[in-house]
Design a protein that fits this description.
The chain is mainly α and 495 residues long. It has four domains: 11-151, no CATH class; 174-292, no CATH class; 325-341 and 365-428; 434-494. 57% of the residues lie in helices and 5% in strands. The chain contains 15 helices and six strands. The strands form three sheets. Strands 1-2 form a two-stranded antiparallel sheet. The longest helix has 80 residues, at 352-431. The protein is elongated and about 170 Å long.
Amino acid sequence: MAPNGGRPTRSGNRPDRVIDSLEQEMLEEVVALDAEEARQHPKKRQKKTSSIRKPLANPDSTEGRFPKALEEGWESPVRDTAIRPSPEASAPQSPLQQRVVNFQTPSGTLSSSITNATGGGYIQSPANPNPIDSETMTNSPAIQPSDFPLQSTLNSNQSMTPAPPAKLRVRWTDIMEQVLLAALRVIVLRGKSSFDCFKRAHWVEAAGKVKEVYEGPADLDWKRAKSKFEDKYRPLWRKWKDHCASLSGWTENEEGLPQNSKEVMDYYFAAFPEYKEFRHSLPVGYKYLVEILGDRGEFAAVEETSEEEIIISSGEEIREEEEARQSMEQPISRSICMNRSVRSPTQSTSRSGSVSSSRSISVAANTGQKRTKEKNSSAAQNLRSQLVAKAARRKKDREKKSDKLLRRVNEFGSASAKLAAEVVAGYESASKGPIEKAIELFDSKYANGYSEDDVFKVYDFLQREEKAAAFSVMAEVRQAGWLRYELRKLENNGN
């Protein structure tokens, strides 16, 4: 039995050679068309399409078709389009018998299905739905497309301007931030800044101080120093002021941190969780920010102002608000009266509705303004009363602290004076000899019990250094007896 379905083949006219020649001619024509189109449109990009495209159901449609020249090439006499598939080619094929070869053209994707000689096969293109028969087709190598203009278009995009290198970031440390705040504080104390604002020269000076402790590779200029302060510390201080302004009836500890009972603090920080960082500690850099940005918080240090001055200022502000409100109401009432006097009877009767409506609107507006002002004035009065009470409490606390400090100073002064007296007395006693010590001791304790003659006799025998030293160091209970003994001995020697 001969292969290929019983059909004998001749080596000189094999179908695989015919298919190879057809594919080679197709590829050459496609390459020629691509080269021609590339010369005409050098910057035209190639459109990517799918690898396999089905034949068109409608032959008249132009979607996905090859160029006209390529379609005409499929109809040329060289390519026999009259060939129809044999019965063996229409038999069912296994997946291993079919092999798909795809290559792109400027107008679409050319798909060919090649099968081996055992099952037959056909070649089909989108432009020619009629298949080409290959009864005894052998496996042919895949057709590799040559270089198309798409590759040159893609390669041309590689010559782009490189992006500039990224700017190095400055890693701030605690020491650097402290140096920055200290430098700004010095500028404020020198009186160079106004309203917590700094000029460029100030930021340059502060950045120079920070550079002395910075060891990184990045450039630490004045803009970075300014952005660090403006982005971190100014919002932090504003947040601290808002926190202090929302407190009422709180006290403060030794560090100046607002305090209250545990229940009140738990309730407050649960309602305002954004202020939890201020429950146990002051803001970062508080001692610098107080002088840089100003101590404007509710619990901040205020000037020494008496309660009477605060109350007087509050009363003056209230009177000013009342006068402003009356001045706003008087023009409105005058305009209404003038409108009433100018109108004639006919006009008043014809426009009574408009007058009443405008009057009601003006009265309602005035009433709303009055209520709003009354609310604002009452709120202002409450706030002022709270400020007065807090100022009084702070003054009382300061007085207590000052009194306590004065008592401690007085106690320290008395203790130091006593200590100084003891030191002086010890020094004087150390500088005196035994004779002076003995005579001083006798005068302070025993001289009143002796007559003047006996006192002089005691002075006489105390002139001997050994007896004066013995009298000074002996026990107090024996000193009086020893004096009597010495006096009797002097009398016996005199007799």
